[in-house]
């Protein structure tokens, strides 16, 4: 028996890859998945009505790179190709991304030409950042914050107005704490090995490129040919975990909802018992844990306090999500992806996504305001109510977007400890956790957003890798 702990995208994808590998071998895979809530999909949740879709968690997926193409392969395999709504590179949601600085919205440069012209809030054309990199000294470091790295190589304005809001948008985090390896591992290696990013870039041109060995599906090829920027799923992203869950059930995976595990007992290298508070137990030869690291820490602390401590050292942040629908024929916003607010502005909001521009088949104007993240407690305290977050969101919408009418519908959600923060030293910490597991012969693999990347593509790819790394464990 093989167990999957957690039915978010990480757990569901693990099931998908275990089934796929099993089809290629002649193993008789017996697989079960335990999910604490009454729903599979984790943070992916969509509220669908005939007029609008409110996404309470993620809304767009990137099609690019190895991990992006891998997800598209999975989408096609699950029969989701027809449901995909791409945003191509010439769409406003692809090339108009704004930041809110000093009481104004500014469009960030999105093409090569705009790098040569000065645009607010930057005091010089962005090309100057490259000169900065060439002339600046470098520092040999094991890791650094992404803010420090970008400030050192490209200047403070790029760190404040480009990278800091981007980090807010990706993980609701503080660029001054997040590891440079989270987004810029290769650029950091260029600096460490060659003394600068541009120098490293030139040297890398001389090296032969290694091709990925991923076979591309028709859908992945189409995304490349049509230059998709991002995509979403018609009717809401929730269709994706729903389809994955059905795929698992159709293939005889036993999916148990409302099944919260509260302790894991490792018996030996091929036996593990998952225990519920009501005394029920589930025995497996191996468990793939996709629950957040802090939650797993609680389950293993009795037998492995040192492992539990390292797992709980991975910090998470809370995000407030306010979805708003305005039933007006004329759009209340300009076509764009939305805007982010750099932390230096000290605003109560992280940013606003213009959903009616990014998600198809929406009537009127649909917006999502994101609040808190790294600054949640500082801005809203321990006991913020949904009403409080709604009031803050509406006030900011009036101030920034000049929308003075009341929303026709809204939904507020406080997503507690929803996004892991890959702070300085994260990758070394994850290596240490996996070393501990290997040296103690624990029959557990770690998947999900706590370890190998926080986005949808990362979580799916990590599941694939973990299943490939433990092929003998099935059956
Ligand atoms: C607000 C927000 C916006 C985002 N936007 C994007 C985006 O636009 N694009 C993108 O690519 N990514 C985005 N992400 C990231 C993406 O949502 C995550 O990478 C992904 O959903 C994480 O999946 P997971 O399975 O690792 O974790 P989770 O979704 O947290 O799933 C873990 C599951 O484990 C269950 N569980 C926990 N403890 C137990 C237990 N003891 N016993 C049994 N079950 C348990 C939980 O109930 C849950 O279902 C966003 C995330 C958030 C929060």
Automatic annotation (TrEMBL):
<comment type="pathway">
    <text>Porphyrin-containing compound metabolism; protoporphyrin-IX biosynthesis; protoporphyrin-IX from protoporphyrinogen-IX: step 1/1.</text>
</comment>
<dbReference type="GO" id="GO:0006782">
    <property type="term" value="P:protoporphyrinogen IX biosynthetic process"/>
</dbReference>
<feature type="domain" description="Amine oxidase">
    <location>
        <begin position="9"/>
        <end position="467"/>
    </location>
</feature>
<dbReference type="InterPro" id="IPR050464">
    <property type="entry name" value="Zeta_carotene_desat/Oxidored"/>
</dbReference>
<dbReference type="GO" id="GO:0005743">
    <property type="term" value="C:mitochondrial inner membrane"/>
</dbReference>
<dbReference type="InterPro" id="IPR002937">
    <property type="entry name" value="Amino_oxidase"/>
</dbReference>
<dbReference type="InterPro" id="IPR036188">
    <property type="entry name" value="FAD/NAD-bd_sf"/>
</dbReference>
<keyword id="KW-0560">Oxidoreductase</keyword>
<comment type="function">
    <text>Catalyzes the 6-electron oxidation of protoporphyrinogen-IX to form protoporphyrin-IX.</text>
</comment>
<dbReference type="GO" id="GO:0004729">
    <property type="term" value="F:oxygen-dependent protoporphyrinogen oxidase activity"/>
</dbReference>
<dbReference type="InterPro" id="IPR004572">
    <property type="entry name" value="Protoporphyrinogen_oxidase"/>
</dbReference>
<dbReference type="Pfam" id="PF01593">
    <property type="entry name" value="Amino_oxidase"/>
</dbReference>
<keyword id="KW-0350">Heme biosynthesis</keyword>
<keyword id="KW-0285">Flavoprotein</keyword>
<comment type="similarity">
    <text>Belongs to the protoporphyrinogen/coproporphyrinogen oxidase family. Protoporphyrinogen oxidase subfamily.</text>
</comment>
<protein>
    <recommendedName>
        <fullName>Protoporphyrinogen oxidase</fullName>
        <ecNumber>1.3.3.4</ecNumber>
    </recommendedName>
</protein>
<keyword id="KW-0627">Porphyrin biosynthesis</keyword>
<keyword id="KW-0274">FAD</keyword>
């Amino acid at each position: 028996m093989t167990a999957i702990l957690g039915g978010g995208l990480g757990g569901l994808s693990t099931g998908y890859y275990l089934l796929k590998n099993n089809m290629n071998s002649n193993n008789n895979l017996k697989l079960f998945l335990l999910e604490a809530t009454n729903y599979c999909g984790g943070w992916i949740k969509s509220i669908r009505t005939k007029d609008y879709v409110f996404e309470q968690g993620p809304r767009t997926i990137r099609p690019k790179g190895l991990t992006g193409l891998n997800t598209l392969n999975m989408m096609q395999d699950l029969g989701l190709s027809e449901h995909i709504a791409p945003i191509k590179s010439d769409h406003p949601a692809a090339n108009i991304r704004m930041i809110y600085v000093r009481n104004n919205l500014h469009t960030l440069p999105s093409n090569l030409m705009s790098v040569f012209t000065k645009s607010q809030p930057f005091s010089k054309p962005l090309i100057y950042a490259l000169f900065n990199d060439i002339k600046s000294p470098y520092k040999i470091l094991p890791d650094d914050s992404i803010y420090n790295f970008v400030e050192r190589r490209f200047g403070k304005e790029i760190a404040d107005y480009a990278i800091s809001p981007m980090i807010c948008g990706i993980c609701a985090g503080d660029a001054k704490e997040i590891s440079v390896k989270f987004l810029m591992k290769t650029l950091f290696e260029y600096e460490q090995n060659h003394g600068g990013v541009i120098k490293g870039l030139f040297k890398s041109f001389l090296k032969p490129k290694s091709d990925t060995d991923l076979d591309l599906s028709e859908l992945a090829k189409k995304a490349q040919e049509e230059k998709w920027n991002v995509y979403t799923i018609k009717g809401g992203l929730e269709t994706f975990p729903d389809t994955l869950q059905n795929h698992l059930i159709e293939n005889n995976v036993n999916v148990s909802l409302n099944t919260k595990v509260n302790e894991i007992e490792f018996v030996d290298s091929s036996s593990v018992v998952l225990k519920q508070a009501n005394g029920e137990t589930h025995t497996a030869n191996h468990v793939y844990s996709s629950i957040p690291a802090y939650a797993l820490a609680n389950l293993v602390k009795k037998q492995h306090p040192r492992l539990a401590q390292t797992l709980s050292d991975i910090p998470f942040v809370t995000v407030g999500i306010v979805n708003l629908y305005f039933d007006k024929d004329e759009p209340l916003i300009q076509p764009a992806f939305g805007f982010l607010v750099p932390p230096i502005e000290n605003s109560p909001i992280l940013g606003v996504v213009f959903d009616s521009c990014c998600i198809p088949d929406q009537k009127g104007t649909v917006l999502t305001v994101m609040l808190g993240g790294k600054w949640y407690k500082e801005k809203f305290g321990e006991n913020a109510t949904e009403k409080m977050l709604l009031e803050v969101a509406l006030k900011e919408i009036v101030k920034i977007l000049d929308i003075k009418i009341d929303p026709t519908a809204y939904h507020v959600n406080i997503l507690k400890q929803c996004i892991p923060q890959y702070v300085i030293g994260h990758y070394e910490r994850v290596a240490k956790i996996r070393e501990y597991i290997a040296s103690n012969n624990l029959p557990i693999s770690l998947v999900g957003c706590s370890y190998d990347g926080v986005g949808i593509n990362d979580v799916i790819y990590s599941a694939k890798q973990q299943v490939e790394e433990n092929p003998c464990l099935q059956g």
